[in-house]
Write a structure and sequence with these properties.
The protein has five helices and seven strands. With 168 residues, it is an alpha+beta fold.
């Protein structure tokens, strides 16, 4: 069973360890430090615990911390939209955890925040993430050609979207 929980420092060592996976780093933004130190983990977790209403959650599977998921709410004219990101630690891949976590996070986000749209950008090589988003009712809105540079390689950015009004 998958559950989303608020951040606590008791997972700081596992969090730092899980973030130091090349595949996870290769699928995310460069703003995430690499290597990801214990201090980086502490700072990030403390930042999350300071928020009155959390936009990010830790993912637990069978009562064990296995990853994280969250949204970033946009501003200005895009303030009703959010961007979602997530990762599952490598030892837990292949158990359907991401799919359940996405469903829980989408439900939480639409109920908790004044948003009507959640998008997730996926690099062109990450077919597994595209499948899990589609499985959760996201649709492929666009492919931004040559929009990303990661590790010196120019990639397409697949934009997957779920609208609140389209949900069951």
């Amino acid at each position: 069973m998958v559950a989303l929980r608020e951040y606590t420092l008791d997972v700081v060592e596992a969090y730092a360890s899980y973030r130091n996976n090349k595949i996870i780093f290769d699928n995310g933004y460069d703003k995430v430090p690499n290597p990801f130190t214990l201090k980086d983990a502490e700072d990030f977790i403390n930042l999350q615990t300071d928020k009155a209403i959390p936009e990010r959650k830790l993912i637990y599977w069978k009562d064990q911390f296995v990853g994280e998921i969250g949204i970033t709410i946009n501003t200005d004219v895009f303030r009703l939209s959010a961007e979602m990101g997530y990762f599952i630690a490598a030892p837990f891949w292949g158990h359907g955890i991401a799919s359940e976590a996405i469903k829980l996070m989408v439900d939480y986000s639409f109920k908790t925040f004044e948003i009507i749209r959640i998008k997730a950008g996926v690099f062109s090589f990450n077919k597994a993430s595209m499948r899990v988003l589609e499985k959760n009712g996201f649709y492929l809105e666009s492919i931004k050609k040559d929009a990303v540079i990661k590790n010196g390689v120019i990639l397409d950015d697949y934009i997957w979207v779920q609208l609140k009004r389209k949900r069951n």
